[in-house]
Amino acid sequence: MIKRDNYLRRLISNRDNGFPKVITGIRRCGKSYLLKEIYRQYLIDQGVNSDAILILELDDFRNARYRDPIELGNYVREYCKSKEQCYVILDEIQMVFTIKNPVLTDGKHIPAGKTDTEVVSFVDVILGLSREKNIDLYVTGSNSRMLSSDIITEFRDKAVNIALAPLSFEEFYEYRGGSSSDAIYEYMQYGGMPLAVLKDKAEKETYLKGLFKMTYFRDILERNKLRKGSSLDELCNIISESTGSLMNSTKISNTFKSVKHENIDKQTVDKYISLFKDAFIIREASRFDLKGRTEIGALRKYYFCDTGLRNARLNFAYPDEGQMLENMVFNELLYQGYTVNVGVFNTVEKNKNGNSVRKDHEVDFYAVKGNRAYYIQVTADISNKVTKDREIRPFILLNDQIQKVIVVNKPITETRDEKGFTVIGAADFLLRFIRN
After folding, report:
1. Which domains does the chain have, with CATH numbers?
2. Is the distance from CB of 94 to CB of 146 less than 8 angstroms?
3. How many angstroms separate the Cα of 136 from the Cα of each of 85, 87, 127, 180, 271?
4. Start and end of every DUF4143 domain (predicted)?
5. What does the pLDDT look like over 61-105, one tens digit per residue?
6. Distance (Å, rounded) from C-alpha 177 to C-alpha 183?
7. Is 415 a residue whose pLDDT tops 80?
8. Which residues contact 289 (CB under 8 A, 6 or more apart)?
């Protein structure tokens, strides 16, 4: 069994808290497995009788009648009414359709139209059931509406959202074992989508490519009623190729014009990027002024939630080790609970003519968690002096008390260089350093 202990702990800490637990995340990242297998087994191990755990798979045609929101609510209440405490898992909740308010239709259950405002939806069912004192409710879904981050807004402060991601490197390595260096290269190439992890190399590539075409793009197109996906597809490729580069909608629009010979305005680019973010395919890191201590500007860096998905967009050709490692470090920092920004600052220096000029500098990541803060540079190798000098120059210019870390994709343990900066191998950084 692939363990998801970080998410299991979150479920446990929110058990019986009176709020529904809404599990969101990119499709195929293991939401159903987390609830139906891992969490269910935990409850049984804690002494909960199996008949006090109701799992309702709403995508099963045998449960079609419960796609009616009122039928669903009535069934769950009836099942749980004689039990002191009942744990209810509603899987694929998006299958529940919205109906007109029966008060206005002589009690008939009539599917609602787009313009109807007096309706009963799955949101009403979830909030209603969560008010029953003997029901602890868990919900997951995996299509357009439930995938979108706007579902979090819809429940506001009336639900606990647990955002599930593909396997972190920590989870992947715990399952895979073996050499941590070999594991890093495998993870950078194929990522941590649970079903991909279980397949051989050829099957991994086919599976990951298919996820975009048959699942993610189709969800986005259907949800947003887009007729063509070619521009969406091209934008995804551009972001894949530019992972870890500072970008904005104007820059991407210009790339479309110069490389793709296609005119797409910046508003459309912004819209498409938001669609990828809402489906949890990509994440963004904003710039943070390390001297002014504030977020700045429109430029952003974009990272994929999974390195395997990113590489699938590039047909697994010519992988850039530095980009993949940077994406990997970003994801792992988020998994461990850090707030992560791109660190930027500027200095005024003399040029060769003696004139004062402003120079911009960047630190890959400024990561903060509680009272811990790090400046982090990520690189494949620093054995070359020119490369090392380039990586540490921002650290020297900053000259403050925040710990400065260089993550190298080499099997080395934590050391300090002659300037006092921490140099650490990627495996040691990911599996130990950021967890301490």
Report:
1. 5-164 (3.40.50.300), 177-436 (no CATH)
2. yes
3. 8, 5, 11, 39, 37
4. 218-379
5. 999 999 999 999 999 999 999 999 999 999 988 889 999 999 999
6. 8
7. yes
8. 295, 296, 344, 345
Q: Which residues contact 284 (CB under 8 A, 6 or more apart)?
A: 277, 300, 301, 302, 303
Q: Is the dihedral of CA 58, 63, 69, 70 positive or negative?
A: negative
Helix (H, G, I), strand (E, B) or coil at 104: helix
Residue 177 tokens read as: 């074992």
**Up-side HSE of residue 170: CA atoms within 13 Å toward CB?**
21
The continuous run of DSSP H or E covering 396 comes out as: helix 385-398
Helices (H), 256-303: 266-278
Residue 338, classed as helix, strand or coil, is: coil
Residue 397: count of CB within 10 angstroms of its CB: 15
Structure tokens at 286: 């904003």
Confidence band, pLDDT 50/70/90 cuts, at residue 153? low
Tokens, residue 361 = 């500098």
Structure tokens at 284: 């963004």
Give the pLDDT of residue 114: 86
Which tokens go with 124? 């009403």
Neighbours of 185 (CB within 10 A): 15
Give the residues across from 357 on adjacent strands.
Answer: 349
Q: Would the CA dihedral through 380, 386, 392, 398 be positive or negative?
A: negative
Q: Which amino acid is at 99?
A: I
CA distance 185 to 222: 35
Q: Is the dihedral of CA 257, 260, 264, 268 positive or negative?
A: negative
- E-state strands within 156-306: 160-164, 282-289, 294-304
Residue listed under structure tokens 């190798």:
381
* Helix (H) or strand (E) segment spanning residue 80: helix 69-80
Rounded Cα distance between 418 and 413, Å, is: 16
Model pLDDT, residue 213: 81
Using DSSP bridges, classify how beta strands 119-120 and 135-140 pair: parallel, antiparallel or unpaired. Answer: unpaired
Q: Answer yes or no: is pLDDT of 150 > 60.
A: no
Instruction: Supply the DSSP symbol for 351.
Output: -
Q: In this predicted model, what pLDDT tens digit does every residue of 307-338 receive, in sequence order? A: 999 999 999 886 688 899 999 999 999 999 99
As a whole number of Å, the end-to-end CA separation of the chain is 26
The whole model's pTM is what?
0.90
Q: Across-strand partners of 408?
A: 379, 425
> What angle is formed at CA 433 by the lines to CA 432 and CA 436, rounded to 5 degrees?
80
